[in-house]
TrEMBL record:
Transmembrane segments: 17-38, 50-75, 95-117, 129-150, 179-199, 211-230
Lineage start: Eukaryota, Fungi, Dikarya, Ascomycota, Pezizomycotina
GO cellular component, one term: membrane
Annotated family: Belongs to the SAT4 family.
Segments of this protein annotated with the region Disordered: 289-337
This protein's record includes keyword Plastid: no
Keyword Membrane: yes
Protein name in UniProt: Rhodopsin domain-containing protein
Broad class of the protein's primary localization: membrane
Membrane topology field: Multi-pass membrane protein
Pfam family, one: Fung_rhodopsin
Keyword annotations from UniProtKB, A to Z: Membrane, Transmembrane, Transmembrane helix
Protein species of origin: Lachnellula suecica
């Protein structure tokens, strides 16, 4: 393969990549830690959505660690100025990190779908729709990984065509499927923006609360924007003549998309860190009457024997509860009467007359 000489000098554009990407992963890590703290604060168990999101974070960091290894061998510099050893190793670490980088945002979106599942309530069509959305999202992204791994007879030919000669597909095949994958991911983000609003709007809540929850749960629109930009840059994968220079912007926007998915899916869970619980969210009364029985004036009520003479007694039971949180998740998951994880106080008064 002839490597054209670039117009510019032998410079590196990796500093902006390292600064922007590590900043994004630092912010995503902080938000996910706060997410776990927020759940523990209100005594909620760590669920499937938290596990998937943590896995997405670890895979994302691993992916960028591979890119950092590629930086050591010339990622961010023009391919023309690299030695044969640097060319092989820089491309190797980029290709090795690609499958991990695809899995990370996939698990991030699946995490948000798992978070939305309780909001569907008893509606089977909504549940089935979420299951379908999760299945198609997983299939499309896993197939992307398969195409990366099988595009050459020998995988090492991808980064070392001279040392490991072999037949490979046209790089445009991967780029074309990359457009399809990016388009479906963007469409998934659109659905994850609209779907929560449709659920929230059908709940019996105050209008301002519906609007607020719809906005918070609809932050996937930011991930959609990042996904569209990343998809537009997919063509850089097919251009192998200056691979180490051209793919830097693609890596940056992959990171932005990945971290935006993780951050926006975590924001709705952070409310309990900033809002104090509101007490006395409900109360009930229960009346029990006692009447004298027999010549000795003995009466029985609720298994308790009392002596009285021509006496009526009424027992008033007041029950009050204070909810542990007021987040959208608790609003949807609460049962009739006392909400889950509420603190219940019962006071009994006995009046004789």
């Amino acid at each position: 393969m002839d490597i054209p000489k670039p117009d510019g000098p032998d410079t590196s554009i990796t500093p902006r990549m390292l600064i922007s990407c590590w900043t994004m992963y630092g912010a995503a890590t902080l938000i996910i830690v706060l997410r776990i703290i927020a759940k523990l604060k209100i005594n909620l168990k760590v669920g499937l959505d938290d596990i998937l999101l943590t896995l997405a974070l670890l895979l994302g960091i691993a992916n960028f660690a591979f890119d950092n290894a590629a930086v050591r061998y010339g990622l961010g510099r023009h391919f023309f100025y690299l030695t044969p050893f640097e060319r092989v190793n820089s491309m190797k670490w980029e290709f090795v990190g690609e499958p991990v980088g695809i899995l990370s945002p996939m698990f991030g979106r699946l995490s948000f779908m798992a978070y939305l599942l309780p909001f569907t309530g008893t509606s089977k069509p909504r549940k089935h729709f979420l299951y379908f959305l999760a299945a198609q999202h997983a299939v499309v992204n896993l197939l992307t990984i398969v195409l990366i791994l099988v595009q050459c007879k020998h995988l090492a030919t991808l980064w070392d065509p001279m040392g490991v000669p072999g037949k490979c597909w046209n790089p445009q095949v991967q780029a074309d499927y990359g457009y399809f994958q990016g388009a479906t991911n963007s469409l998934t983000d659109i659905v994850l923006t609209i779907f929560p609003a449709m659920i929230i709007w059908n709940l019996q809540l105050a209008k301002h609360l519906k609007i607020g929850l719809s906005i918070v749960l609809g932050l996937s629109s930011f991930a959609m924007i990042a996904s569209i930009i990343r998809t537009k840059l997919t063509a850089q994968i097919a251009d192998r003549s200056d691979f180490t220079w051209n793919t830097v912007d693609f890596i940056i926007w992959c990171t932005v998309e990945n971290c935006t998915v993780m951050i926006t899916s975590s924001v709705p869970t952070l409310r309990s860190l900033f809002v104090r619980p509101k007490p006395a969210t409900g109360w009930t009364y229960e009346m029990q009457h006692q009447y004298p029985k027999g010549s000795n004036g003995t009466s029985k009520s609720s298994g308790t024997t009392k002596s009285s003479s021509n006496t009526r007694k009424s027992k008033v039971v007041s029950k009050a509860y204070a909810g542990a949180e007021s987040s959208g998740e608790n609003i949807v998951q609460s049962q009739k009467g006392v909400p889950r994880d509420a603190i219940v106080k019962e006071t009994q008064f006995e009046v004789a007359y």
